[in-house]
Structures are given as structure tokens and as C-alpha cells.
């Protein structure tokens, strides 16, 4: 057996704790708010102004002195005189005083002297004579200064990803540029003498390299910037040279070269210029995963089997990328609660990640069916599935009919 | 009152039915599989090859003739002789016959003559002498040709968005380029004399234009390509000229200019060179929304209030963009089931969209609290919320403690 036989596997939780304790945050960069969709905000953002910054009408209707309408009814309307109009976007030309009204629209500045707005549907107008059929209380149908955002208020909290509505509120506060976490750059390196670039001739014994593009896609999906460094053969020299090239990036993601086979020398390569922090995790698939640091940069050694590398990406690498950006939610995947459609067996002491396909039952319940598979070599088990169920370390499996949480594959 | 008073509002369902019946699909374009993340596949994609295309070992161990191991035990191991090794990525140099074994690793091509693989942990080796302690059945620990994907099998179904695992399976099938739906291009036009570009001086009566960037972000999020055509004033001539500029794109999204105020002439502008298909929807916020067709292209007239325009975007415009791409799932938003934390009142005959914030209760339940708001002018009600609850048309509201479905805001 190889020198590198995996002796002691650590739990997924321990693996994450080790990783998180050893990684550094990436820096920040300034972007236009309009270009900030999806970016992570590293610090609270505060408004320097009140929104709105003037008192405005919240309705189409008439700006009035509320007292003038007190006690009015359908039978006994209040009678006012309309003194002009204040359009949206214009400065009021007229003040309102008792007995008078100014026509306003939703968003119009409230003319001086007025303290409420009567809705147009509660009035009837004839020339400049206005009848009001329902009373309003002072400040009714009026948007006050700072009602939306108060000066000094935090509008985006640190660690949040910018959504369209966040762009909206930032611009409403007159904020045009914000600091966001840089996208961590990730070198993606596929290893293995069996790999050839896809699309060529089929050669017995060789397989197409799928991991480079797949892991690169995952890096993008989790907010990083992938750099595909291609395929590297199973030689110490080539692997070490690839690792050194990876040092130009914020993290390095290798796939292949972590199992106990003789040709798996990648952990040695990492140790030669850095350190391996763990090797082997109590999880399936993905058990042979290793993690190290080289020049302070995280280096992930993922299994070469596509399914295993994808599951480990979602479990460890993606959350690490988000942690490096200071994101509050490290796991962006959606979840659904489902009823298990078939029994799942598992092993105590290991966390199993079971691919499941979701179906809607006749009674409306969501049912999760494990995708039948003979191992982590079967890529189509991931494409036929909608998400993963995690079977915890202390469980021997789950019975048909159990309530399960399905982590949905990110899209 | 204006000529354009809204007389009859249609339901959200009817609005969607009208829109979907009148829009055309966008064309397709060829992209590299590595660049296809998130794109919509308009037609089923089939594999032209079997994956794997050769029989391979599913384990690290020894390729054997299964019959040689029948009946072996820990006490009475089968004794075989090792004749070399077949590494991953290499062609087998040796055949296996009865009494012989060839060392293999996971992914190695299975040497001729072998019909099973014995796991390395179930053996002991001394030089070329191999002891096998557990029997294997024929084909055990062997990946068969086409086990992952069979030649002719559909690997991606039409209407699906490409995920990382789909990239993986496509490349495994040797597929390097695929057809995807083009991203619909959307002209985004903000209207209103009250609008000024954000970041300038605060002027009483004027407000910063937030809708252009917000709706552009939404267009991107739903898979389209936004073109920000800026702010247009409330004049027939300017609006018509903007609409004509919008005809260079696949759809047009106006915000502002749809309520019953006198200055809202946008529906007239659309009618002058196309047709208005509906005006007014029984929903809140977003009721004054209108929709038309000009030169066969969908034209959305959204309310100017940011919250209303966002809710209508998620309800109508986003799904339309996805429908134009042929997406299977028109609504990409995640959902969670929650317990309502406060009573919500609603009106029969209208669908209400209530912004809610989610909290985890002590017992682990997810509780949805309506975000207190005084109208759709309050942008921060969207940023403080996590999603929307839809109160259906036939409901007068929902009691505290009800089970509700929250549509999560897209990120």
C-alpha cells in the first residue's frame, strides 16, 4: 500500500472548521451600484440622506387642510375650492389654506399649508368647486420625510449579496458606487494520466476531462472567478509546477489524485511546498478529499470522480469561496422538505450525500426518490437528480416515508 | 377624470394567459458547453456515444475471474498470482485467466478475461502471491459500457437551465458545443418628469431614478440582456420616440406612466403604433400595470413605484422572459413553507403580494412576519423582506399561525 494510506478520517464539520480557521478574506473593490448584482457587501452601508427628502402625496387626489373635511359625509360633503395643481416633479406654486385644495398626484410634493391628501375617488369636482365625501385625518395619505429610509440608517448589512431591491434602495439614497468583496480567483486543475480533452477520438482506457469545466462553472456559481489550468499528468514534477502556477490565484482546486492508489502523489506535492491540514473525510462520496495551505492559500484536493468532486465542491469549496468574500450565508442552495420515497441505508460514522429526484405526489406532497446508482463514477446520477439529502453521521439510514430536507442543486 | 380610467381589472392568471398566448420564442445560438452555465436548452440533447466507452474497474484492487474466488473465506483465502498491473489511462498489457490477477485502480480498463474486481482491502499480497478473503460475483465492482449514459439517451431535456453537472455529462459524452436559447434583449425605460439620475443634488419634488438599474438587474437575473434607455419625460412625443427605440430589442419594459393621473399617456402612445391588450390587474401592488404589443413585441407598462414595479417584474415580466427562451420552469424563485407571525388582511377579488421577513423560531419553525409598510413607495420594505406571500383572490386574509408559502426573492 501507498505511504499515503488514509488513516483517520475527520468529520465534515471538523473539515469546515479547519478550513475556515485558516483562510483569509479577499480584498474589496469599488463598483457601480448598477453593476453590483449578486456581489457580497463586506461592510454595512448607511444612507446619508432621508428618503423621501420632501413630504409627498401618497395618492392621486387633493392636498387639503384635514380639519376642513372633519365630519363630512356622502350626504353632507365638505365644499372646497381648487387653487391649481402641483404635478409630480414640480415645485408647488400655491399654498393651501382652510377652504382651499390643490390637485396632486402620487409622488407630488405636498404644498405648504396642507396636512393631508383626499383620494380622488372620494371627491367630485365641478370647475374649481370640489366636494369631499370622506374625512381625512392629519397626515393621512402623506409620505413623510425619511419614511422610507432615515439619514444614518443601515440600508445593506455586511455579508449580504446585492439583490435588485438593494440596488433600488442604494440609488434612492443617492449612493452610486459601493465597495464589494473581490471575486476570489480559483485555479482549477484536473489531474490524471487517463484524462484527454473532450471532443477528441475515444481511446480505450482514456476518459474525457469533465472536471475542469464543471468545477469552473461551480466556482462562478459561488461567486468566484475560475481560471482553467487544464490537465496535468500524474508526475511529481508536473503536479508541482501546476501547483506553483496556481499560486497566482486566491485558491487552488485540484481534482484527481487523492485516493490511496500508488499514483496519487498530490498530497506529497502539496507537502513539499506547503502543508496538508487533513486528508480523508468521513463522507460519501468524497471521502478521499484533502486540504492544504501553500503560501497561505487554500488548496483543495478533490477526488477525480465527477460526482464526488461536485458533492465536495458544494460541501466545502463553495462555502469557502463565500467565506473568503465575507458572505453571511455560506450555503446559497435552496432547500425543500420532502417525504422519502424509498428507504436509504447508510453507515454510522459517515455522512452520506444521496442524490434524489423530486416528484409531486397526487396529494400535493413533494416526494424524494434516491437516484439509483452504482457509484460516484455515474455522472448522470447528478443530472437526473434535483438535489442531495444528507444522512448524518449518527444515522444508519432513513426509512421510506421519513421527512427529509433536500438541498437543491444550485442553478 | 382621465380618458384612461381603468374600468375592468383582469386577474393575474388571465394576464399571464394573454401574454403567453401572444409572445414568440427567441432564436437559438451555439455556445461552448463550458460557457453554457445557466443557459436554457431549447431541444433535447442526446448522446452519440456510450459512457463509459470501455469496461472499467469501479475499485482499487485486482481484476480476476470471479469463479476463482467462489467459496473463499478469511480462513481459507483463494490464492492467485499477480501478473502485472493495468494503470488508469493505460491499455491492458496482460489478459486474466483462471488463477491469475492483474492489479487495477478505480477507472482502469478491465483486462480481457477478467469478469470482476476484488477490492484491495479484501486481499493480502506477498510479492506476486495474492490472497483473496471475500468472494466476488461476476461483474462485481465493474463499470459496464454505457452504464452512465447509453448511446442515443437524452442527457439534457428541452427547457432546462444548464447546471454544472449538465456540463459534466455533456463533456463526458464528447459534446463540446450546444444550442441554447438566445438571451432576450429588453429595453428598460423609466418615465416621469419627477425623475433625475441618482447621485446628483436633491431637488424638492424630484426623486432619483431607481427603476432603470433595478429593472435591468431583474432582466439579467431572469436570463435576459438589459439595455438601459434612460429617463424619458412625460410627453407623447418623447415617449413615442422611446418606444420606437425600444423596437430594436425583444421586449420593452417601461416604468411609470400607467396610473389614472392626467399625465399618464403611455397607453395612448402604445396604442398609436401597436395595441394595448390589457390595462389594470387585480393585484396589489402593481394594479395599474398594462401590457401591449408593438410590431409583435411585448411591451410592459409597469407602475413607477419601485416596489410595485419589482413585484410585477417577478410576477409577469420575468416569467415572460423565461417563456421566450422556452424554459420549463418559468418562475425560478425558491419557496419555503412558513408559519404566519401576524394576521394579514386582504380584499376579495384581488391578489395581494405581501412582503415578509423570515425568522427562525426557538422550536425550529420558520416564521414569516409581514414587513410593516405604508405603501408601494417604501423601497426599504423590499430590502427588509426575504420574499413575498401571495394572498389569493378568494381570500379575505390570513390568520396568524396559518401555514403559508413564501416565494423567496431571487439572488
Q: Can I get a quick summary?
A:
Two copies of one chain form a homodimer. Chain A is α/β, with parallel strands linked by helices and 411 residues long.
Per-chain topology:
2 copies of one chain form a homodimer.
Chain A: H1 12-22, E1 28-32, E2 45-46, E3 56-57, E4 61-64, E5 78-86, E6 100-104, E7 116-119, E8 123-126, E9 129-132, E10 142-143, E11 154-156, H2 164-172, E12 177-181, E13 185-191, E14 195-196, E15 207-208, H3 211-221, E16 225-232, H4 236-246, E17 251-255, H5 266-273, E18 275-279, E19 283-284, E20 290-294, E21 297-302, H6 306-324, E22 335-340, E23 344-345, E24 351-360, E25 366-370, H7 380-383, E26 387-391, E27 397-398, E28 403-408
Parallel strand pairs in A: 5-6, 13-16, 13-17, 14-15, 17-21, 19-24, 22-25
Antiparallel strand pairs in A: 1-12, 2-11, 3-10, 4-6, 4-7, 5-9, 8-9, 18-20, 20-21, 22-28, 23-27, 24-25, 24-26, 26-28
Helix pairs in contact in A: 1-6, 3-6, 4-5
Can you walk through the features of this model?
2 copies of one chain form a homodimer. Chain A is an alpha/beta fold. Chain A folds into 4 domains: 12-27 and 182-324, 3-Layer(aba) Sandwich (Molybdenum Cofactor Biosythetic Enzyme, Chain A), CATH 3.40.980; 28-51 and 147-181, Molybdopterin biosynthesis moea protein, domain 2; 56-143, Molybdopterin biosynthesis moeA protein, domain 3 (Beta Complex), CATH 2.170.190; 335-408, Beta Barrel (Beta-clip). Chain A is built from 7 helices and 28 strands. The first copy, chain A, has helices at 12-22, 164-172, 211-221, 236-246, 266-273, 306-324, 380-383; strands at 28-32, 45-46, 56-57, 61-64, 78-86, 100-104, 116-119, 123-126, 129-132, 142-143, 154-156, 177-181, 185-191, 195-196, 207-208, 225-232, 251-255, 275-279, 283-284, 290-294, 297-302, 335-340, 344-345, 351-360, 366-370, 387-391, 397-398, 403-408. In chain A, the strands form 8 sheets. Chain A has a 6-stranded mixed beta sheet, with no helix packed on it. The first copy, chain A, has a 6-stranded mixed beta sheet with strand order 16-13-17-21-20-18, sandwiched between helices. The first copy, chain A, starts with 11 loop residues before the first helix and ends with a strand.
Amino acid at each position: 500500500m501507498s505511504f499515503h494510506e488514509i488513516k483517520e478520517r475527520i468529520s465534515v464539520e471538523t473539515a469546515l472548521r479547519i478550513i475556515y480557521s485558516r483562510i483569509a478574506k479577499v480584498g474589496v473593490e469599488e463598483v457601480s451600484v448598477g453593476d453590483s448584482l449578486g456581489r457580497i457587501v463586506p461592510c454595512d452601508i448607511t444612507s446619508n440622506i432621508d428618503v423621501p427628502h420632501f413630504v409627498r402625496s401618497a395618492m392621486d387626489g387633493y392636498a387639503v387642510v384635514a380639519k376642513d373635511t372633519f365630519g363630512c359625509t356622502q350626504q353632507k360633503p365638505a365644499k372646497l375650492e381648487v387653487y391649481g395643481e402641483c404635478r409630480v416633479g414640480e415645485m408647488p406654486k400655491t399654498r393651501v389654506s382652510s377652504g382651499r385644495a390643490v390637485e396632486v398626484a402620487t409622488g407630488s410634493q405636498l404644498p405648504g399649508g396642507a396636512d393631508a391628501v383626499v383620494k380622488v375617488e372620494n371627491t367630485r369636482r365641478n370647475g374649481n368647486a370640489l366636494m369631499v365625501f370622506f374625512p381625512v385625518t392629519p397626515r393621512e395619505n402623506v409620505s413623510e420625510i425619511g419614511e422610507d429610509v432615515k439619514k444614518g440608517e443601515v440600508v445593506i448589512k455586511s455579508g449580504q449579496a446585492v439583490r435588485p431591491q438593494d440596488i433600488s434602495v442604494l440609488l434612492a439614497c443617492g449612493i452610486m458606487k459601493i465597495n464589494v468583496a473581490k471575486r476570489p480567483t480559483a485555479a482549477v486543475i484536473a489531474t490524471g494520466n487517463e484524462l484527454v480533452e473532450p471532443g477528441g477520438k475515444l481511446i480505450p482506457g482514456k476518459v474525457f476531462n469533465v472536471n475542469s469545466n464543471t468545477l469552473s462553472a461551480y466556482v462562478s456559481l459561488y461567486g468566484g472567478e475560475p481560471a482553467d489550468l487544464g490537465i496535468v499528468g500524474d508526475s511529481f514534477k508536473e503536479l508541482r509546477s501546476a501547483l506553483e502556477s496556481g499560486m497566482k490565484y486566491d485558491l487552488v482546486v485540484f481534482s484527481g489524485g487523492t485516493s490511496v492508489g500508488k499514483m496519487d502523489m498530490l498530497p506529497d506535492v502539496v507537502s513539499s511546498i506547503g502543508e496538508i491540514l487533513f486528508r480523508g473525510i468521513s463522507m460519501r462520496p468524497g471521502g478521499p478529499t484533502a486540504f492544504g495551505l501553500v503560501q497561505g492559500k487554500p488548496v483543495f484536493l478533490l477526488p477525480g470522480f465527477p460526482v464526488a468532486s461536485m458533492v465536495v465542491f458544494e460541501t466545502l469549496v463553495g462555502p469557502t469561496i463565500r467565506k473568503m468574500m465575507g458572505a453571511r450565508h455560506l450555503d446559497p442552495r435552496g432547500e425543500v422538505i420532502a417525504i422519502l420515497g424509498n428507504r436509504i441505508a447508510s453507515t454510522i460514522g459517515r455522512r452520506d450525500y444521496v442524490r434524489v429526484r423530486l416528484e409531486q405526489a397526487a396529494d400535493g406532497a413533494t416526494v424524494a426518490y434516491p437516484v439509483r446508482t452504482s457509484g460516484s463514477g455515474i455522472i448522470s446520477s447528478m443530472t437526473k437528480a434535483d438535489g442531495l439529502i444528507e444522512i448524518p453521521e449518527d444515522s444508519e439510514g432513513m426509512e421510506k416515508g421519513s421527512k427529509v430536507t433536500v438541498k437543491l442543486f444550485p442553478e
